[in-house]
Design goal:
By secondary structure, the protein is mainly alpha-helical. It has nine helices and no strands. The radius of gyration is 18 Å and the shape is flat. The protein starts with a helix and ends with a helix.
Length: 193
């Protein structure tokens, strides 16, 4: 249910930036601003999902595990900006490296800690930290340094960047949002039935 609440908010607030960056041949979208914007949106979606789950009494004392799992998923939404950037500069193999690193960073700590008899909280916490390291090192730091070499840094305020760069793409965000609502409909049904 947490993902069913979290994902549509991320998709609606994400403004389909991956696709916008992927086709931005004139390099008009500031990638650093897009990363910051996506991070803020995913943090807000995570907060809204956790508050909603608490309000629905759906956490059942597992707030740490649920929160860390949703935060790990939030990292995928941030990495989505890197995927669009790599598509734009025709380095799609780096998208595969990112997926592999994030998958391994999430899966192997959980597997190893569980096999050694560690608790679920520890396993999810270490997996989250590993995922943060993978996203920051492979996606965030890499694309911000490459983006600076690909485009001139703008001297606009954050508000003007949002208004001029992201808002025109708002209509493009609606399809993934509604598609995600449809895909999560079974989660809503299971919870409310």
């Amino acid at each position: 249910l947490g993902l069913a609440i979290f994902s549509p908010i991320c998709l609606l607030g994400g403004l389909n930036l991956r696709n916008q960056i992927a086709v931005d041949q004139l390099k008009q979208i500031n990638v650093k601003a897009a990363l910051l914007f996506r991070a803020v949106i995913t943090a807000a979606a995570l907060s809204i999902a956790m508050v909603a789950l608490q309000g629905l009494n759906a956490l059942h004392g597992n707030w740490l595990i649920v929160g860390l799992l949703l935060a790990t998923r939030a990292l995928d939404h941030v990495s989505d900006i890197a995927a669009g950037f790599y598509q734009n500069i025709n380095q799609v193999q780096k998208i595969g490296i990112s997926f592999l690193a994030r998958g391994a960073a999430n899966f192997f700590p959980m597997l190893i800690i569980s096999a050694l008899g560690g608790g679920a909280e520890l396993a999810v916490f270490v997996a989250f930290l590993s995922s943060v390291f993978a996203v920051v090192s492979i996606d965030v730091l890499a694309i911000t340094s490459e983006a600076m070499s690909c485009q001139q840094a703008r001297k606009n305020t954050m508000l003007s960047k949002i208004l001029t760069e992201f808002m025109p793409s708002f209509s493009a965000a609606l399809f993934p949002f509604f598609d995600n609502l449809h895909n999560n409909s079974h989660r809503y049904a299971i919870y409310f039935v």
